[in-house]
Amino acid sequence: MKGSSIRFMISITAALIAVSVFLSVAGCGGKKAEQQSGNQQKAQGKQQTSDKPIDSALKEQMNMYKDIKQYEFKESEKLQKANKTQLKKLQQNRSESQSKTSTNSNKKTEQKDTSNKEKGTSKQKEDQ
Asked: What is the pLDDT of residues 39-63, one digit of tens each?
């Protein structure tokens, strides 16, 4: 009997310890959950108040980015216009030089034609 009563006392003691541990954990867990929800609400409140400076900083950076992009766009337009005008000048110079060379070649062919005619007339005279 003593062995069974000791076992009974040990099992009851173990059960009481298990229940007390369970209740203490469950009770602390409830407090932790309340504390966590309270902390979350505080953090959300802080985040909402701190969002305003972050938003304004982001807006300022976005405006700076837009300004930079506009400046880059204007500079690229200026560069394109300069390239177009330079291309037009080069094309005009090329066409002028081609026209000069074509007139020079026309003069040369005219000179050849006249010299050929002269040679032809001199050959005809010799044949006669």
From this structure: 677 666 666 655 677 788 899 999 9
**Per-residue b/e over 76-98, b at no fewer than 16 CB within 10 Å?**
eeeeeeeeeeeeeeeeeeeeeee
Question: And the tokens for 55?
Answer: 């938003």
Taking the alpha carbons at both ends of the chain, their separation in whole angstroms is 168
The structure tokens listed for 81 are: 């216009």
In Å, how far are 11, 46, 73, 84 from 79, measured between CA atoms? 92, 50, 10, 9
- Coil, strand or helix: which one is 128? coil
- Rounded to 5°, the CA angle 23-29-30 comes to 90
Residue listed under structure tokens 């337009």: 77
